[in-house]
Amino acid sequence: MSSNKEEPKKPVPASSSPPSKPSTTTTAKPPAKPAPPATAKPPATAAAKPVPAAPSPKKEPEPPAFEKGLADQVKKRFGESIKVVFIRPLRIKIQVDPKDTVEVATFLRDTMGFDHAESVAGTDYPKENQIEVIYHLGSYTREDLAAHVLSLTTRTNRDDAHLPTLINVYKSVEYHERETFEMLGVYFEGHPRNDRFLLPEDWADIPPLRKDFRIKGR
Amino acid sequence: MTSLEDKFEESKKLGLQIVKESEEDRLMTLSVGPQHPGSGHFRITIKVDGDYIVYCDPDPGYVHRGEEKMCEYRNVIQNIPHLERPVIHDSNNITYSYSLAVEELVGIEVPRRGQFIRAIASELNRQVYTLYWLAIYGIFLGHSTMFMWPTGDRELFIDLLEALTGARVTHAYNIPGGVRNDMPDGFKDRCMRQVRYFEKRLKEYEDIFYNNPLFRQRTEGVAVLSKEDAIKLGVTGSVVRASGIPYDIRKAEPYDIYNEIDFKVQYMKTGDCFARSYVPFLDMKESCHIIEQLLDKMPQSGEVRAKLQPNPKGPPGEAYRRVESGRGALGYYIVSDGTPKPYRVKISVGSFRNMLALPYLLVGQKLADMPAVYWSLNYWPVEADR
Questions:
Q1: Which phi and psi (to 5°) does residue A140 adopt?
Q2: Would A47 be classed as within a structural domain?
Q3: Three-state secondary-structure class, residue A10
Q4: Are B105 and A48 inside 8 Å of each other by CB?
């Protein structure tokens, strides 16, 4: 692990005690501070600004050491079959082929410590005839990953949108994938319930978050 | 003593038709909601075997409004008022992470005083939300004093926010670039007074509610969510902190000026209904300290918002930003294609994530414990539906 900021952490004893319940409430030491360049202000501009000005050198936002370590770890295991994109400090995006998602997700969970999914988002790209599905993965168990959100993305054909489900790797994607199914029409193979969730039961139109669905009158 | 079999034989002799019940007949299906006051705008289909819940299927969507689709038709500033509709009690937090994500995409630097003011507004709003939740939790456990007191104290925070933002519940106050307007004169003193008063009140809440033996019996040891399961289910906010994981976005990934604030993440280890209802209370206490610090450290003068171009837009890109709301992590994933309107907005809300724990916790509980379990999840149906 090329972690560059393993701070020594000591458990801090309880400061705020519950009414008559000793030792149930303790006060936590904050999870390890994110890497030095990852404070609130600089990444916003650093990641967003240089792009329009100078698109010539494509590699200009150089990832900090910790993010680079994470990226190298995944690259080392999967080689050319995946693509790692550095968005900004604390945010890495991994693009994989649909057939590799389960394998990569299992690796991310078991070896790298991303233990739960925060959300699953789908984006429709009609021009490329593709739908992108993004799993935002986070970690509760590793304190040095607490600030990180790793995006695992995969793309599927828009006309016949099928993807393998990740429910056996991340139980937490169950409702998110169901929502993606009904909002974007991506069928998750192996998911126990690809059915109605948020939309009305008598909904009889195309999935509403696809770009060719238009809100009436707009 | 005649056994059931004997009775059955006897009834046949008498010419009566008594049908033996099968396993399926034993179960009774109940539909709780979507208009039941105990469930909010949300339906839970449950099956009970006698007193015990054996099956539970949450069915959200009764108040689904398509917020994410609506975002694609408006520019980033026009989106603010409708985005706070899912949680009008916590409207400053739900627009906070949206503002952070837009600032990241457009490249806006928020003035320091603006950062403080919007942190104060969000903390005050979190108190409003948590008090509202506590009032509901109280009344559904049959404790009507616990409905009256938080509702009354919540009004004082609403008055503060009204003085600050101009509106009682839907503020549209946090905007990309800072806050909409500066603090009124004398707000600092008024806010301090209110917070000190509220800290005293919290002790009384503890005495009358959390130390109440009846409340303890209804909640202690009920519907335990273990640490491993909490991680597996990916729950967030007070639910995950009640299961022994000290995870708070304000600490894990500090935004704006939260890295300058000294506070502790409140958590418990038991994972039962009591822990899940007590952690938000501890959060309220801690939030009082945060507000006091914010008021002390705030610069006395300066800009409160950055100058924006009329139609703010940035280069194509994507951003995912999170804040800690009253119900846990609240994240926005925004994809921009370089136009003033977002290409895609995904709202990742705590309620939606915590809903996954509901079937897990309810099955095996008594029907009478349903409100205690359901409201302990800090679940807000309208937010989950979006």
A1: -100, -25
A2: no
A3: coil
A4: yes
Domain count, chain A: 1
Range of the domain at A178: 64-218
**C-beta neighbour count of A171 within 10 angstroms:** 17
Q: Which amino acid is at A129?
A: N
pLDDT exceeds 70 at position B98: yes
Work out the mean pLDDT of chain A and round it to a whole number.
74
Over chain B, what is the mean pLDDT? 87
* Within a domain: A173: yes
Sort strands A162-164 and A187-189 into parallel, antiparallel or unpaired: parallel
Of A51, A115, A198, the CB nearest to B61: A198
Residue given tokens 């002390």 in the structure block: B296
CA-wise closest residue to A112 among A2, A7, A32: A2
Q: How far is B224 from chain A (nearest CA, A)?
A: 14
Distances (CA, A) of A164 to A134, A181, B77, B306: 13, 12, 37, 45
CATH of the domain at A179: 3.30.460.80
Closest chain B residue to A148 measured between Cα atoms? B253
Q: Of B130, B122, B151, B125, give the one whose Cα is nearest residue B139.
A: B151
* Contacts of A200 by beta carbon, 8 Å cutoff, 6+ apart: B61
Look at A136 and B246 and tell me if their CB atoms are within 8 Å.
no
- Write out pLDDT tens, residues B129-175: 999 999 988 888 888 898 899 999 999 999 999 998 888 888 889 88
In a domain, A99, yes or no: yes
What is the three-class DSSP state of B353?
Answer: helix
Answer for the pair B190, B163: CB distance below 8 angstroms, yes or no. Answer: yes
Name A210's Cβ contacts closer than 8 Å, sequence gap at least 6.
Answer: A124, A126, A184, A185
CA B85/CA A3 separation, integer angstroms? 41
- Where would I find the H helices in A65-170? 65-78, 101-110
CB B288 within 8 A of CB B199: yes
What b/e readout covers B324-341, taking b as 16+ CB neighbours within 10 angstroms? bbbbbbbbbbbbbeeebb
A14 in B contact zone (CB under 8 Å):
no
Q: What is the mean pLDDT of residues B325-348?
A: 89
Q: Does A28 map to a domain? A: no
Q: Give me the numbers of helices (H) and strands (E) for chain B, helices first please.
A: 17, 9
Q: Return the H-helix or E-strand segment holding B321.
A: strand B317-325
Q: Are A207 and A185 in contact (CB under 8 A)?
A: yes
Report how far residue B205's alpha carbon sits from residue A149's, in angstroms, rounded to the nearest whole number.
37
Q: What are phi and psi of A192, to 5 degrees?
A: -65, -30
Domains of chain B from N-terminus onward? 76-346 (1.10.645.10)
Which three-class secondary structure state does DSSP give residue B373? helix
**pLDDT single digits (tens) A166-194:** 888 888 898 999 899 988 888 988 888 88
Q: Does A13 touch chain B (CB under 8 A)?
A: no
